[in-house]
């Protein structure tokens, strides 16, 4: 296997867990959003758009993990890194959520400033913040899981979660 192929394989393997987690999370958020938007005439987000968003979030997490300060508290109790990473990842997710809404208005308005003004005036902020709350809780869940995986090792965490593999004769 060439170095390039090995690197691509490594990148894909690193991208799969956060993508699966965030895709599942975004499906839940999409369902909540569809229920909130029922009767408003606003189209809900499609599963394909959610998959693209999950890929973007997963890549944002992986890129954030390259930042040296992301593991700011490696020798402290896990809660320190969990809360720190939740803050960082939630800030990125909030920016992406805001931009996603902005793009919807941009298509209508034709310009960035007009879209931003229109969005600020017409967006149902209670819906935005309800989705944000769900996003922060899901990001917190992701951070707890990844910190446990870091502390215990992914193999040990899988074994604890799914059980020990059955041995022949047992």
- Nearest-integer average pLDDT: 83
The coarse overall form would be: globular
**Spatial extent as radius of gyration:** 19 Å
Q: What is the number of helices? A: 6
Main pleated-sheet profile? none
Write up this protein:
The structure is a single chain. This protein has 170 residues and is mainly α. It has one domain (3-161). Helix content is 79%, strand content 0%. It contains six helices and no strands. The protein is globular and about 50 Å long. The mean pLDDT is 83.
Write a brief structural summary.
This protein has 170 residues and is mainly alpha-helical. It is built from six helices and no strands.
Topology:
Blueprint: H1 3-37, H2 47-66, H3 78-109, H4 112-122, H5 125-152, H6 154-162
Helix pairs in contact: 1-2, 1-5, 2-3, 3-4, 3-5, 5-6
Quick tags:
single chain, mainly alpha, 6 helices, 170 residues
